[in-house]
Write a structure and sequence with these properties.
Largest sheet of chain A: 4 strands, antiparallel
Number of domains of chain A: 2
CATH topology of the largest domain in chain A: TIM Barrel
Structural class of chain A: alpha/beta
Radius of gyration of chain A: 22 Å
Strand content of chain A: 15-25%
Order of helices and strands of chain A: EHHEEHEHHEHEHEHEHHEHEHEHEHH
Number of helices of chain A: 15
CATH superfamily of the largest domain in chain A: Ribulose bisphosphate carboxylase, large subunit, C-terminal domain
CATH class of the largest domain in chain A: Alpha Beta
Shape of chain A: elongated
Oligomer: homodimer
Chain lengths: ~375, ~375
């Protein structure tokens, strides 16, 4: 029997309409025409989406499971998103909640090339949680950002990522920034200091991002950040497949919280397409994700199903050093904590503030970390 | 004074919080860190987003105008979206409503290469509304889709577009489909019939889409369809710039109705990046757009501001021949009407049903079309 995707939608509507709405979604996400007008037997029986189950979740909210022929996707990530949610994204009362993907398609997408274990190994931290900080603010010249990077590195940060607003702007062009930051970190290392990994943010079309990876590689960099929803999922996936030695952080910009469940989009799909680490807005920070959402997202990034390497969950967005203990209690050791603004607020004491963050992560007793069993 | 973008957000929150929320958006969409920690004078005065005005629209909904330095965008369409709405898209209570773009950036993006007048000229219809129909359902082999295309063409349809679900599937690979459909339309033309323009749908990463344009061009095709939100805006724009003789239809899949106002995203931004025609869900069909939204979207696609060629508004999604008069009253002559399912329902009478649609559009008295003065 040909493989099918199982997509789960949450639909808000009244009970009398739900069966019709469910059928309409199944048609919209497959043949997009009146089924009565389809004469072809293969199309009717295989290609038309099927409503498999409808379950009432709460008053006027229904969980609808629809199966779609995997053949409609082929092996293209953009078409995968198109068939899962493309036109239905135009309906404000529908959320794409989850999807079960046939094994062959998961294997074709391939997942992370490196994942949690490799990102740990690269910074010599086999068991503890990882640390990260962002280069900010945009507007600074490359040399100033390199100084910020040096302060982070001296304080022992594992991964230093570009702010996702850093692109190829006149005040800090990508090439100049990569050269300055990589050079600054290299000279620290050569002076006997600890090396930190710099993660520059890619932007532009596929060719531009390829050229940026080339520049990064020439500067000795082996990790980059991409915003899959801006780059386009197919282009993100292509970059991953073309660059087997490069690790990829996925940034959630434009991943619009409301309409595709964040655990699905950021935790499961970005990972399936090759993200080694997935940044997401942590609960209790500047964004509205709940603890449950964050937990589900981290589980989706890490779980051992489906033969994929685990991707590192990277909660971020308004975190502070004071919360390190609480966050490690919550996530366990399989996490990368990303703190930015709260450290930069220390201004001339940036290094000391960062060292305090790093120390909190290092001194945490992981033997007692409960986290969630994944 | 350096150029600034003026972005308008609709924010739902209580009156006591709106000033803080507005400042938070201005910071999120620019430096993404505590302003108090920024020591650099250029960054403080130019790069940090500025709350320009806050106006209460209705109870607990505010229109917030924020200006952002155009330098943060450079000239990249993806980064443009990133700076306008990237992280703020993660807040469910904020909608990106509109943006005013500096002249230099509009010129850099360039807008449609062809637009309304050229799409009319190509099909020999200098004044009336244009007609379009989609090839469906996916699952049919290329030869069957070519028969559907012939029926549409014989009935006098101007543009025949792929259903946006048609990609490069095993049952109808892109290359085979383009060859079959283009061949079928060419043989009609050679037999003295009227030629219709075939608009194949591109999918995949940038390189794949380039290869598809190459195949289309070899088959004599000069119009293609792209889904900008799936391809990535930078890649869409790159294709437009690389292919000056090709006209581009933009499809709204994944343009998620709820969070960026459709007139802005589909009407204004897709056009600014080079869409010659913009497909959108019409009011009163399968989707929830209001007449006001559709009118604003059509105006944004057509208006004569900013030196851009007008893009053709293409209302679609559950239209019928019975509504042609009403739609032309509403939109005027500067429109392309797209009807699919309602014609395919006629099954063996597809050609006659299509001819009736075409006749309605041709016989409409455009002298009396009021439409909206654009």
């Amino acid at each position: 029997m040909p493989a099918r995707l199982q997509a789960i939608y949450l639909v808000r509507c009244d009970a009398r309409s739900i069966e019709e709405r469910a059928r309409a979604i199944a048609v919209e996400q497959s043949v997009e025409m009146p089924v009565s007008a389809i004469t072809d037997e293969f199309v009717r029986s295989e290609i038309v989406g099927r409503v498999e189950t409808i379950a009432e979740k709460e008053n006027n909210a229904f969980e609808v499971r629809i199966s779609l022929a995997a053949e409609t996707v082929g092996r293209d990530p953009g078409q995968f998103l198109n068939m899962l949610f493309g036109n239905t994204s135009l309906h404000e009362d529908v959320v794409l909640a989850d999807v079960t993907v046939p094994k062959e398609l998961i294997e074709a997408f391939g997942g992370p090339r490196h994942g949690l274990d490799a990102l740990r190994r690269r910074v010599g931290a086999p068991a503890r949680a990882l640390t990260a900080s962002p280069l900010k603010p945009q507007g600074l010249p490359a040399a100033r950002l390199a100084q910020v990077a040096q302060a982070f590195a001296r304080a022992g940060i594992d991964y230093i990522k570009d702010d996702h607003g850093l692109a190829d702007q006149s005040y800090s062009p990508f090439a100049a920034r990569v050269e300055a930051v990589a050079g600054a970190l290299r000279s620290l290392e050569q002076a006997g200091g600890r090396g930190a990994r710099y993660v520059p943010s890619l932007s532009g079309d596929l060719d531009t991002m390829r050229a940026q990876i080339g520049m990064a590689r020439s500067a000795g960099i082996d990790t980059v950040m991409v915003a899959p929803m801006i780059a386009g999922l197919s282009n993100f996936h292509r970059l991953v497949r073309e660059n087997p030695t490069i690790a990829f952080f996925a940034h959630p910009t434009m991943a619009g919280a409301a309409r595709i469940a964040p655990p699905l989009l950021i935790g499961k799909l970005f990972r399936m397409l090759g993200a080694d680490a997935v940044i997401f807005p942590n609960y209790g920070g500047r964004f509205g994700y709940s603890p449950d959402t964050c937990d589900a997202l981290a589980r989706a990034a890490l779980d051992h199903r489906e033969g994929l390497r685990p991707a590192v969950p990277v909660p971020a967005g308004g975190m502070t050093t004071a919360r390190v203990g609480e966050l490690l209690d919550f996530y366990g050791a399989d996490v990368m904590l990303l703190i930015g603004g709260a450290l930069l607020e220390a201004r001339e004491h940036l290094r000391e503030a960062t060292a305090a963050f790093v120390a909190e992560v290092h001194r945490y007793d992981y033997g007692y970390a409960h986290g969630q069993p994944r």
